[in-house]
Structure prediction request, 323 residues.
Amino acid sequence: MKLLLALLAALVAAGIVMLIAAAFGRYQARLERKLAGYEPITAPRTSMKSSDIDLAPETRMMSSAMELTRDFATRTGILAKTELLLEQANVPIRPTEFLFYIPVLSIALGLLLGVAYNPLTGLVAAVILAVAPVVFVVRRRDGRVKAFDGQLPDALNLLASSMRAGFSFMQGLEAVGNEAHEPMRKELHRVFTEARLGRNVDAALEDCAQRMKSQDLMWVVMALRIQREVGGNLAELLVTVAETMTQRERLRREVRALTAEGRFSAIVLSIMPFFFLAVFQVLQPDYVPKLFHNTLGTIALIGAAVGNIVGWIWLRRIVNIEV
Prediction:
């Protein structure tokens, strides 16, 4: 019986999504028909939407829902941020699909498990399914950014060696891109391709620095621009910048090692309230429910949660030392 109810709930959720998509799709079609008479006949069509193609009803409704998601995300500014995040994380998925499928699948799974088991289980599953992809993409982005900064000094040394061997800056950049590992390889190949297509190499490197959130690469771009204005040995300049980055990274790791105790204390102190709450629930089953069904207990729980969050942020700010 539970399985049958779960299947019915999933079908109802899918039907609601399709009805919403169909309603907005019909509204958009009516609006386009009304505005069609005001469009110049000789005006070239710059883009093609899914409504311009004869699609199956299911595909047309899905495309309308995707377009609705894209328009809403564009107006709110979420689309640009999501696109940058996916690009930084090197996740091969369009931002519209990422913003559309995650909420839909989360709601469907929440309804399915809520009917099959209980509403709390469905709510927890829906929240986990909604948060897990975002956490995965953010952690993948942070890993690529950290790996890029770690590879940058070696790439600069290799570029300086190539220039000393007689290569030009662009030839050395291409050689470094062919020899480097990911993510340095892909980013340098993109910079080299943009430069070959006519873009200024400094602008391409600056966009790469902003895309990868690399302050070190931004300093390299500034050093390149200053060197072109005042002159000098570019290879020696790149070696000096690479040595400075290496020393800063060594100092950053020393600071991280010295602050490891504070970071570990923040983690332990944040977990302890939940740990003791679980222990009391096992040892004294009649004690914990009183906290949730009593006004004073609820206030105490809210105060403990707020204090826990404030303490964790405070400790993280203390041990976060800029180098």
Notes: Residues 143-248 form a domain with the Receptor-associated Protein fold (CATH 1.20.81.30).
